[in-house]
Automatic annotation (TrEMBL):
GO terms for biological process: siderophore transmembrane transport. Its main location: membrane. It is found in: Cell outer membrane. Keywords: Cell outer membrane, Membrane, Receptor, TonB box, Transmembrane, Transmembrane beta strand, Transport. The keyword Transport applies. It is a multi-pass membrane protein. GO terms for cellular component: cell outer membrane. One of its GO terms (molecular function) is siderophore uptake transmembrane transporter activity. This is Iron complex outermembrane receptor protein. Residues 84-188 form the TonB-dependent receptor plug domain. Belongs to the TonB-dependent receptor family. It comes from the Bacteria. The keyword Membrane applies.
């Protein structure tokens, strides 16, 4: 252990390079120190007070799978879906099984206010954004643990579980810094898998056009007080056009151990992707290829009765090999890009209930590190790239993020008010502390109808790609400042067994927004902080449950519609934008689920998209100018037979074989047909 100053003469800190006398490879590899501040959070793990007398939580509803009673991650303290004073979309298991989709990305295409721009199909790679934000501004969580990638948001959806393993998805629209910390700038998406008390084995096999195969196996196993969920999957295709083939492997384990002190929840996952990246990052060189590997592990404990504690620790490693030329490289090409990020996190969330409401407080330590041959600052010594022969990292960067949270929720008659703030320190910001407050309000006029409003501030740190990437068409900027925003929101919610409807208006003022821009076609794309961008939006959602209206035997089961509008004001600047201004102006989605005959059903999804902005249009790798995005309609259909143990299905995406472009110069697939069977063997019945 030693004391040192960093190169920016920031405050003195205690650091260590070894643990228990061993020089672990991670500390050696990153050539950086891990701040001993993490021990402050770690200390709390072994000093949790236990309460002898339980206090009833009168505000927490029982958590079966009635939607109103699902606990969602909208505040620091537990809150149910019906209590939340925000727009939250919850996609449950039954909805997932009825949807004509095969990946998380495809499913999110239909969510309110969510913009999915897919480079590769079936979960290969997609950029996800919420409410007109950029793909780096949406935080992704797996069972409440932050799995976002600091290298680039392009990798945020590299999740080690397939769609078949997911129990539900929660989407929080709007900034969430005081709940999740930095980078929950325009929204957050929490992907939830849960071990089931019923022991079961599930198999799902599907095949389709373009050599598609989709193989899934999962099991719930109960051993004493330990419940385990294990899942593995493989999805592959020859590709719908040249150089769009892919091969994806996932393996995932989640365990839940119930003990006297509390419940221990731990998970570990691994995903391996290899895919043709036709024109992914520049149409000038379409023969690109990418291979990524993601390893993830976390452990979380829920303990305490009057004073509740939830300590957590997590680690995520992401490895990326990008080939600008999959074969036949140009004479000037010097080699592939290699990157490896390691993220470590420790957090503690605590809350208690009193006559004044619920009070929550907590802290998080997060260390983000990258090794690369192109991103970062020069290393003192080169480091061998794991798993690659004769390749070395020459650059790297490390930053530390420390956040403290506090929140209190009042319940006064029909009024609910949640006030909170996040105090944040980031090592790259020259020892500055910043505070990001927020308040959520709701007033219940009746059991069915309530109004809500909110005010929240948030920030996003630039990714390592924003800071350092340099290529044939792009140039990063190591002097970037973080993005900051202030968001105002107001809306109404109406909920009965037959109808769930909500509407919200929001106004966001973004400062120092980060984008890849250029003034003329001849210049490189460069990252820059844009002075100010104002955003106004409207979201409307309505879901009809015909079972509650006409009875369970009625052939129409569900009909839903959601609409999102977003408008950006960039001021008088005349730059070309590569990402920030290419947001969805209009998006409307229709959903219909109905029976056909006995146990045979159909699920329809139809959506319309109209995107702002333009893209660099190429013909045969030759740039011919900027082209506006054209609006389009798409329809997807799933027909399936279902009983208690089996589902046999036929799915058709892009039913009417529409040609369209949704990102860059990348042609999206036409009609794609697949068919499969899912079988679940229940051991408890």
């Amino acid at each position: 252990m030693k004391k040192l100053f960093n190169k920016h003469n920031r405050a003195e800190v205690l650091c260590f390079r070894r643990w228990n006398g061993h020089g672990y490879s991670l500390f050696q590899a990153i050539k950086r120190q891990v701040r001993i501040a993490s021990l402050v959070v770690a200390y709390l793990y072994v000093s949790l007070p236990q309460e002898a007398v339980a206090q009833t939580d009168t505000l927490k509803l029982s958590t079966d799978y009635n939607l109103d009673e699902i606990e969602v991650s909208a505040q620091r303290a537990p809150v149910t879906y019906s209590q939340a004073a925000r727009i939250i979309s919850v996609i449950e298991r039954e909805q997932i099984e009825a949807a004509p989709v095969s990946s998380i990305q495809d499913l999110l295409e239909y969510a309110l206010g969510v913009d999915i721009r897919q480079r590769g199909t079936y979960g290969v790679q997609a950029d996800v954004s919420v409410r007109g934000g950029s793909f780096d501004q949406t935080l992704i969580l797996l069972n409440g643990i932050n799995i976002s990638d600091p290298q680039t948001g392009h990798h945020n959806l590299n999740v080690p579980v397939s769609l078949k393993s997911i129990k539900r998805i929660e989407i929080l629209n709007g900034p969430s810094a005081r709940v999740y910390g930095p980078n929950a700038f325009s929204g957050a998406i929490n992907i939830v898998t849960e071990p089931d008390d019923d022991e079961a084995l599930r198999m799902d096999v599907a095949f389709g056009d373009h050599g598609l195969r989709d193989l899934n196996a999962s099991a719930n196993v109960k051993t004493g007080k330990l419940t385990s969920f294990i899942a593995a999957s493989n999805m592959a295709s020859n590709g719908y056009i040249s150089n769009t083939d892919f091969d994806i492997y996932n393996i995932f384990y989640q365990g839940r151990l119930k003990t006297e002190p509390g419940t221990l929840d731990f998970q570990v996952g691994y995903t391996d992707k290899g895919f043709g990246a036709n024109s992914f990052y520049t149409p000038k060189y379409p023969n690109q290829y990418e291979a990524t590997k993601t390893t993830f592990a976390s452990v979380k404990m829920e303990t305490g009765k009057t004073l509740h504690f939830t300590p957590a620790a997590y680690w995520r490693r992401h490895q990326d090999r990008f080939e600008l030329f999959r074969d036949n490289p140009a004479s000037w090409y010097s080699g592939h890009n290699y990157h490896m990020t390691d993220v470590f996190g420790l957090s503690l969330n605590s809350w208690f209930q009193s006559d004044l409401g619920k009070t929550a407080f907590g802290a998080e330590f997060r260390s983000e590190n990258i090794l690369s041959n192109v991103l970062g600052e020069d290393l003192d010594d080169s480091i061998k790239v794991p798993g690659e022969s004769g390749q070395y990292f020459y650059k790297g960067h490390s930053r530390t993020i420390i956040s403290y949270f506090a929140e209190h929720t009042f319940y006064v008659g029909n009024l609910t008010a949640s006030l909170g703030a996040m105090a944040n320190w980031i090592s790259d910001l020259h020892n500055e502390w910043n505070v990001y407050p927020g308040i959520d309000l709701s007033y219940k006029f009746s059991d069915q109808f309530k109004a809500f409003g909110s005010f929240n501030k948030s920030l996003r740190m630039p990714t390592f790609t924003d800071l350092y990437y340099s290529g044939p068409t792009n140039q990063g900027n190591p002097d970037l400042k973080p993005e900051r925003s202030t968001t105002y929101e107001a809306g109404l919610k109406y909920r009965t067994p037959a109808l769930n409807a909500e509407a919200a208006w929001y106004h966001r003022i973004g400062k120092d927004m980060i984008d890849w821009v250029r003034l003329t076609d001849a210049e490189l794309w460069q990252t820059a902080n844009l002075t100010e961008i104002k955003s106004d939006g409207l979201e409307v959602n309505a879901d009809l449950n015909f079972g509650a209206i006409a009875g369970p035997s009625f052939f129409i089961k569900h009909f839903g519609v959601n609409y999102a509008y977003n408008s950006l004001d960039k001021g008088s600047s005349n730059y070309l934008s590569n990402y920030v201004l290419d947001n969805l102006k209009h998006k409307i989605v229709f959903s219909l689920d109905h029976s056909i005959w006995q146990n045979i059903y159909a699920g329809w999804k139809v959506r319309f998209q109209d995107r702002n902005g333009s893209y660099a249009k190429y013909e045969d790798t030759v740039y011919i100018g900027e082209s506006d995005y054209e609006p389009f309609w798409l329809a997807d259909l799933k027909v399936y037979y279902k009983n208690e143990t089996t589902q046999v299905y036929l799915s058709v995406s892009n039913l009417f074989d529409k040609s369209y472009i949704d990102i860059g110069n990348i042609s999206q697939p036409g009609r794609w047909i697949s068919a499969g069977i899912s079988y679940q063997l229940n051991f408890n019945k």
